[in-house]
Give the backbone structure.
Amino acid sequence: MKFPSSLSSIILVACCFLLQQTTAHAQSDVTQPSDPLIASSGNSPGSEGVANAIDNQPTKYLNFDTVGIDGIPSGFVVTPGVGKTVLSGLTMQSANDGPERDPKWVRLEGSNDEAPTWETGSWTVIYENEEVPAWTGQFPDGDRFQTQTLIFGDQAPYTHYRWTVVTVQGEGANSMQIAEVELLGRSMPVDVTQPGDPLITSSGNTPGSEAAPNAIDNQPTKYLNFDTLGTDGFPSGFVVSPAVGETNVVGLSLQSANDAPERDPFRIRLEGSNDETPTWEAGTWEVIYENEEIPAWIDVFPGGDRFQTQEFFFFDNEASFLHYRWTVLQVQGETANSMQIAEVELLAFSRAADCDKALFLTKPVDTPVLQGESAEFFTKVNGPWPVQWHKNGEPIAGAIQTVYTTEPITTANAGDLYSVEIVGCETSEAVQAVIFEPASQPLSIGVNFAGAGANGAPTSVEPTEIGGASLQAYWNNLPPEGDGFPNGIQENLLNSRNENSEISVEWISSNTWGAGTGTDNTNAKLLNGLIEGGDNKDAPTTIIFSNVPDGSYSMLIYAVARPLELPTADFEQLESEQSIFMTMENADTYNESPEFRQVTSTDIAARGTGNYVRFDDIAPDNDGNVTLNFWDEGIEAANSTVNALQLIETAKKVLRFTSIQLDPSTRNATLTWASGKNRSYIMERSTDLLDWEELTDSIASEGDSTSYIDEAVPADFAKAYYRVTEE
């Protein structure tokens, strides 16, 4: 059902006004007319179905199941499009006739199951009223289309709600009816911390890659501290000072780390301080919340207790603080040798953005998508600021999360423009969902190491997801399901056009793990799982593609290390006798600026720093093999890694200037670019990017890098542009 634009505007204003409140009493309807609904049954007239109950109109939902005193309950399940919400009340508007049909006994329940139904799911009662006052008594002069508001205070957040009428007002009623049900509340509290916020750890008794900053990095990396062990350890934790300033925290969430459930927190304390510079040991600290018996993750999540989140709320906290101290006083197991946690979030309700502080950490970008699939756009902001997505300049009702998923993209709507606003402050540039045509790209095979052990691994990529420095869909997860492993063979890999290629891959390494780049988008997933490099050139990790047809290929190797590690990585492509030497980025660096950065250095004494390398002009050997070896120099515990690879058919090397130098005394300009073997090039010059002068042609390739000197650039040139093309 569609509504006039004026009504949509009214709904939006109500939504956004809600987000800008700071008191516990701010409330508005969290449902929208388009929200997914499940009726208790289909026992309704055709024009009086369940959708009428949340359409923001005085249309009627009628159900014949709930009759007199012998009927059965009726109602609906709704999943608000705004995501998880905190409810504090509900309203019910009476319908047009039959006062005996009005609800008398109502029940409201919440669920965080993945897909509960009317009959199934884990449902928790939020509010129940067995004696709703009769509308005829409340509104004696006109009880139809009148609204009763029932307030019950902030409750735990839920994703789905079940509204049930157990009985109606009249014993002789032949049905239940309602004109409108509104669920009053607001979006779930959000994390006030951000990666990089000032942080003080309780001690340095921590492995190098598992330090306290991992607890607030928004990734499933681990903070581990050896002080809190068994029953005789010391407290451990951290002090954090959110950069957004003073906040009113009303909840926290704890995500379990990768292993050893006995290390999970059991007794915790959260304190706040407004001192100028409190420390772990000193300062005026006020207890906000304490829990002396956190349920064991293995009990709450028996099917898979790792990387699972428990949430705790204390809506009665009215104090605001600049600094917070999170402390683990005891862990779950008496024999535990440490405390560990993957993520701690301090939760506060969204409030009006402070435009002097509010910033985008990441903005949405043009996103490739297969035709008929939905595109996802992402943003991150530096605080608990309300956001609003727009399509073609108009607000999208209910689109107030940091992720927005479009309807399926076709040629009809591919031109739509999307942007996101920090409400009242900055709006991002408009971006599009771009239909991706696999056949228009070079034929390629992509493999993604799923990884295991820690930092969010295993991490798989869905077939329709598109990623990589050379974009492609239909990546092969190694292995296809479950945890990754150090050694394996996968036959008959899919190519980038979703065809069986008959190409196989074998990998032989020492370990598998996770990098900690997360799962927010396809590239983050590709860079998360990993296998480790060998100890040296004589004992490398080896990856072999077999049954590769004759031809020319490029190989792209993606390599991101674990947090806090900065290993070297030596890559050797055997068939082409090429080597590249890298200092690897780690997940911390990548997450600050999530882009692909290529390393091209062929000099071991002058390594480049980045997260992927590329080999070109590869011809399979006589047996159809293409082989990569890689290793590191064994710097302490830092291991080189490979996260994913692409083998691209007939791909030409991307021409890119790597250096432009001007000698002021001679005005000689030396231009250097990444080149391919047995190639020749044309060099051109322009002063306005319109007219180009050919300086020379038939410049012979010097190998991986080629240079040309433009001698005595005219002194009257204020600027000069150069263009190199392959002949």
